[in-house]
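Continuing from yesterday's entry. The apo prediction looked reasonable, so today I'm repeating it with pyridoxal-5'-phosphate included to see how the binding region is handled. Same sequence as before; SMILES copied from the compound registry.
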Amino acid sequence: MKTTDDLTNYHLDSLLIHGKTNSENWDYSHHLVPPVSASATFKLDSVERGAQGFVEFAHNENPDSQVHRPIYIYERLGEPNKNILEENLAIAESGEMALSFSTGMAAISGILCTLASSGDEIIHHHTLYGCTYSLLVNWLPRFGIKTKGAGFYDIEGLKASITPKTRILYFESPVNPTLELIDIEAIAGVIREENIKRGDGRKLFMVVDNTFATPVCQQPLTLGADFVVHSLTKNIGGFGTDMGGAVIGKKFIYDLLLLYRKDFGNTLSTHSAWTHLVYGLPTLNLRVRQQERTALLIAEFLASHTAVEFVNYPGLPSFPGYALAKKQMKDPSGHFAPGTMIYFVLKGNSPEDKKEKGKIMMNFLATNAYTVTLAVSLGNIKTLVEHPGSMTHAAIPAEEQVKNGMEPGGIRLSIGLEFHSDIIADLRASLEKI
Ligand SMILES: *Cc1c(COP(=O)(O)O)cnc(C)c1O
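Holo prediction written out below.
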């Protein structure tokens, strides 16, 4: 049944391939694949139509503006490939709206700077992707937005740290790189309680970075989050060819976010939008499910190896957050979905010794492995290994890393689509060298 009104009967696998079937965002109808739009500016049929486009831009709250096709003016304001990608991203995360950005960091800075203003405060989980940490600690305070870290697993401690100025609770789950989990429903409870005391203009919001889990392993909006952010560069893009970011969630911020993106200018390139739309999203569930099956086998292999001290993988029953993982990480069919990321530490006499052994292992892999590549980024079809302490999380001071559960020797593995025993063979060979 072809209907754009009721998509609720379809599985996410089908929705991510077909989207809305016919989008108001572009009137092509005889292409199997959306064409690539490559026009930085658009023809305006009359001065009146141009003026109408400017009046309507970022006025989506006005219901009249949605009854006809958008008037395209200039690529930074909006263009068909990005708009269709955004429709499908909203479907993927069960959000009211989605807006794309040039990178994950552009999406994160976008939602934080539209929800919070000078004088407001953001509380974030203490361990975060390094650039997000740097944005919160080094940049936002320069514009009068106060930020402070807290342990989000400690619900009572978190409640105590909220003040009337707090506007946003920000975290990742699973946390990059430790894979520690935060209970999204419990945080939603804290926010609900706090918002009873507040007026409408002063609500507290939850923003969750869902990059590690992806929408096919976890749906934060349905668990009570207000906004989800993504680095499309990772598992949603999947093939490692294009960067991108997205904010998905409640509609009330959409117009302000559009204006922010227009004026700060961090627009996703049209070609990257097309890539994520045509290759990334439609294959997301298929890739993640296969990577996840392999990840469990790799995690079991590492956990049973005598050189390994511990392995954090949400799918291992020995994982400290296993019960929470089973509660909140689910695939589109409702099955347990622990994801594709692994964090582990080697045995050693001291933290420095563990770090040194990890370095030997990773250098061996960099030179000798066929299936495991030493590189930052994650969620790629190729298996990637890296040392967060000195790479992706180098922006967090070493003492802070250790205080908040990052081991100096911690190693992050992102599992790809290679055959599982080939990955295990490469890892086994590298573990023999330490
Ligand atoms: C990579 C990453 C980001 C930043 O995304 P970019 O696309 O590199 O800007 C944000 N959050 C997490 C969890 C990431 O892994």
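Comparison notes:
- The first strand starts at residue 97 and ends at 101.
- The mean pLDDT is 95.
Will overlay with the apo model tomorrow.
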